[in-house]
Please model this.
Amino acid sequence: MAIPSTGQVSLNTVKNEFGDPNGDGQYKLSEYYRDGDNDPIPNSETSIPGNGEISLGDFRGTSAITEVYYVRKGQTNTDLSFNATTENQEFDSPAFAVAEITYKVVQSGTSIQVYAWDGSSGDYEDSYYYQAASPYSVTDLSVDGNGTTQYTSNGSALLIYSNAVGTSSGYNAYYTITNISGTAPDLYPPGYSLTTSTTSSTGQGVTSSGQGIGVGMTAAAVVNDSDSASGTSRITWTFFHGTYPTHTAKFVQFLSAQAESEEDDCYECCVHTDMLVHTPQGEYHVSQLHIGSEVYSYNFETGEKVIDTITRKRFVRRDNEVKVNNLVMTADHPVYLQDGRLASFNPEETLSSYNMNVDQLVIGDKMMTANGELETIKQIEQLEGNQPNFTLYTENGNFYASPNGDNSILVDSVIQGDI
Model:
């Protein structure tokens, strides 16, 4: 717990935060210099001097916590990691997806700054990449003819660390990566105009033009198959200078790449790509959600709408679309009626494709909705053409979808094959 940034600070307050430096039960303010070894004062607490004059006021707003997790943009005072996720689907060919975070370290005046971008998205066609600053928004990548992401300014990046180091030159930097769980990340070439950072303890000079590194996960799927890679790791930047204090910046990062390769005739029950899905963050297009996204589903055991998680997602094109009131989906996609029954426009196809016995969906049926009311089916229309669709699988096996977000319909989330 940090020392308050305002108000009176006593030696006892400092002792409670930073402990007994010498383990002798004797407490003097002169024992609490920042000595460069984080013992007991972290190097990041630059308001506390390393020598010379020291006062209790120097300790306002400081903390003994050395593991500082810099978080996603717009979310402060939490330990959420900066993350990146990609998903990719290709027809009649292998597919791959890359989830990458690219870092850039620059010297700006007397401060050292670290920026981060979402990096490469693998195959570009039919690939969706999610901005870490907002988990449900698609990032518009700028890519040159060689597939290299172009970083034209720091304004397009997330500033995740800035520290006034007291001098405008002479600092070197190096990084270490520690795997916490899952798949260990791979290293990628740095972004445009960046020199490659180093893992060597000798470091590399930090300049205004910057140095950088890409950290990522890759998943590759053969035709009509899927593959994924995910993991959590910590990247630690160390900034050091011959006569100035050493500083460290630690970031926890989660990366997840999901590749889904589909054949044109692969049958999945789906909702049309234009449909919206009901989530705790609002209504989002089904194409913008990904594995790990939170959505609402219905728990039939407890009889209530709950927050659920997407565990699988697939993209297919189907030529058997129907429009039920305003909800567009495949003819074999079951929806939930007022008594919990499942019904589809084509029950025979639902049985053949997914081994599910469901009722015939007819005008007059009443469908379950997100607000607990029932929506009466007044119109069913068969649509023509090969349409893009997405199917989602959740832990409860259902989710809410609608064309405009007014009152979503509870639909099943059947996915063919093993989950």
In short: Residues 73-78, 121-153 have pLDDT under 50 and may be disordered.
